[in-house]
Specification:
Length: 242
């Protein structure tokens, strides 16, 4: 069983980078309208930067300029793609918009993209097709990929092996899979990293904790908030006995 170590981050001198977040969604949910307001209220002073992930079809609306405003901020970088939930809306025109966004000097990755067979908000066959198309486009545009996979291990692995070079840079974000799947990914792709979120604190996340404790080397995982999603579950305070 993995040992749980808790550290008060206020006592740590090192800074950190959030490798996967959705600032634009977090701003909406926190009802902040400007970056300055959000940064003043919520930005951790020890956070040295982040990768903001744009993966909803609405992010590519012609009137949406928020992504440009965010990438204009110091140490905020961008990743662009389409989430498997939105695979049903993927078109050649949408792919052209993603490629156009990736021309920005601070756009450094394609994604998140992948398969989500838990919610199935897009048909599974469509998800597979769009995932393959996005991996092909990422390679054509020489961009690392950010992958979302949930309850779709065999399909995800097969499509990755078919369309990605073995040395491609890959972030399998918010990993929730089995230790066996984790081992296959790490052994097959030498530049693949496993993303760890607040899911690791969920009582149901036994596979995730087992993967971290017994499979993933310290130099092959990335920490991410996936903000505003995947909040850590804090331990319940014990009631004082009367």
């Amino acid at each position: 069983m993995a040992t749980v170590i808790t550290t008060d981050i206020s006592t740590v001198d090192e800074t950190y980078v959030d490798t996967h977040c959705h600032l634009h969604t977090t701003m909406v949910r926190s009802e902040t309208t400007t970056w300055d307001e959000y940064r003043q209220l919520f930005w951790d002073s020890k956070c040295d930067g982040c990768l903001n992930v744009f993966c909803d079809t609405a992010d590519y609306d012609d009137t949406n300029t928020l992504w440009q405003e965010l990438l204009a901020q110091p140490n905020v970088y961008g990743s662009f793609g389409i989430h498997p939930h939105c695979a049903k809306d993927y078109t050649p025109e949408l792919q052209e918009k993603i490629v156009a966004c990736l021309q920005h000097s601070k756009a450094i990755a394609w994604g998140e993209c992948g398969l989500d067979f838990h919610y199935n908000l897009s048909p599974q066959d469509v998800q597979r097709e769009v995932f393959a198309l996005q991996l092909q486009a990422a390679v054509s545009n020489n961009k690392p990929v950010v992958i979302h996979t949930r309850e779709a291990e065999s399909d995800t692995f097969a499509i990755m092996k078919e369309h990605l070079p073995r040395d491609w840079k890959i972030h399998v974000h918010c990993f929730t899979g089995t230790p066996g799947f984790c081992r296959e990914l790490l052994e097959t792709f030498c530049n693949l990293y496993i993303g760890i979120t607040g899911v690791v604190t969920y009582t149901s996340a036994t596979d995730c904790r087992e993967s971290i404790s017994s499979v993933v080397p310290l130099n092959r995982f990335l920490l991410e908030t996936d903000s505003p999603f995947m909040l850590p579950r804090l331990p319940k305070k014990k009631k004082k006995k009367k």
